[in-house]
Amino acid sequence: MTESQYDVTIIGGGPAGMFAAFYCGLHELHAQLIESLPQLGGQVAALYPEKQIWDVAGLPGVTGQELVDHLKDQLKIAPVDQFVNETVDDVIKEDDGTFTIKSAERTSHSKAVIIALGNGAFTPRPLALDGAKELEGHQLHYFVTHKADFAGQRVAVFGGGDSAIDIALMLEPLAKEVYLVHRRNQFRGLEHTVTRLKQSSVQLVTPYLPKSLQTTADGAVTIGLKKMRSDEETTLTVDQMVVNYGFTSNNAALAKWSLDLASERRLLKVDSTMQTSVPGVYAIGDGVTYPGKAALIATAFGEAPTAVTALAKQLYPDKRMATHSSSMHIKQK
User: Fold this and answer.
1) Helix (H) or strand (E) holding 308
2) Are residue 49 and residue 75 in the same domain, yes or no?
3) Tens of pLDDT, residues 176-206
4) Between 6 and which of 39, 51, 110, 326 could a Cys-Cys bridge form, CB atoms 3.0 to 4.6 Å apart?
5) Do residues 281 and 112 lie in contact, with contact meaning Cβ atoms separated by under 8 Å?
6) What are phi and psi of 100, to 5 degrees?
7) Residue range of the domain that includes 112
8) Roughly what angle, to the nearest 10 degrees, separates helices 15-26 and 297-315?
9) Of residues 325 and 224, which shows the higher confidence score?
10) Is residue 272 exposed (0-12), middle (13-18) or buried (19+ Cβ within 10 Å)?
11) Taking CA 120 as the corner, what is the angle to CA 74 and CA 117, rounded to the nearest 5 degrees?
């Protein structure tokens, strides 16, 4: 079997990886994009397809799925090879400075690598109550895939960060009632988002922790709540629950690769060009750290062209790189 040869391999098909692949295509670099999930989009598509995203320049509010769809359309302009449902098992640096990329499906070779894995594999922090497991996928959810499923329902959202507030505000126009249950009176969301929450019809249940779950005869769920620093208890009866206590994630797969990558607090350390401690290996997105790093999609979209430009100059010193996108000769398809 012939093993493919690439200029660049992008590992991770979330928004950062997709934009990096597009930028490689713009500069006519022979690139491949590898994603372990069955579709591109990463956590944004898998976990938050209907959540509004506000930190992308030029888009005054866009859902996760809309953003991924835009990125897919963008890739059509300057396409690269795409492989989904494929997990990279190893990346080996060869004596000549190139890399061998191994997965269960195939082996390929690349002159440079961009790691865009975010925080790696992710799992939601569960609601640790008796009976919660049995309700998962029916009346207990960890993310909203189709907001229309909650139309006309009484919904309790658990959490106090930006994502929990976004979910409550997203469901407010559709649901019969929305409750936001948080263990503190203060919320951790952006000031503007918290202001919108307080001006909405979302009913704030604070400072309470859920203590018990009981299914009622009519199919609803009664939640036992205990007030913080108090013996006071109350109940809340709803049709659906959305738990947003965050997600645990790890990049354990990276530790199995044949690369000695410097890290700090489980994040890959990169320099100003986004290059890691291994020459020829770059990293972008939520999985990297450097002074002043802000873990935003907008930041990752800036890191992608930085990495691609730097590696292209290393691979092809005589190649003329367009300084501005307006100077690129792009044909719309």
Assistant:
1) helix 297-315
2) yes
3) 999 999 999 999 888 888 999 999 999 999 9
4) 110
5) yes
6) -105, 125
7) 4-122+248-327
8) 40
9) 224
10) exposed
11) 35
pLDDT of residue 317: 92
**Residue 277: inside a domain:** yes
Q: Interhelix angle for 191-199 vs 162-171, to 10°? A: 30
Token couple for 103? 């997965």
Mapped onto helix, strand or coil, the DSSP state of residue 161 is coil
What is the domain-level CATH number for residue 144?
Answer: 3.50.50.60
Residues 252 and 118 in one domain: yes
CA distance 315 to 313: 6
Q: Any idea which of 15-29, 99-113, 116-130 has the lowest mean pLDDT?
A: 116-130
- The two three-digit tokens of residue 178, written as one number: 């929305």
Q: Which of 40-44, 107-111, 164-168 has the lowest mean pLDDT?
A: 40-44
Question: What average pLDDT does the chain have?
Answer: 91
Q: Looking at the domain assignment, is residue 333 inside a domain? A: no
| Position 38, amino acid | P
Which burial class, exposed, middle or buried, applies to 24 when counting CB atoms under 10 A from its CB (0-12, 13-18, 19+)? buried
Supply the pLDDT for residue 176. 98
Residue 332 within any structural domain of the chain: no
Cross-strand bridge partners of residue 269: 289
For position 310, what pLDDT does the model report?
96
* Confidence bin at 36 (pLDDT 50/70/90): confident
| Count helices and strands in the chain by DSSP H and E runs | 8, 22
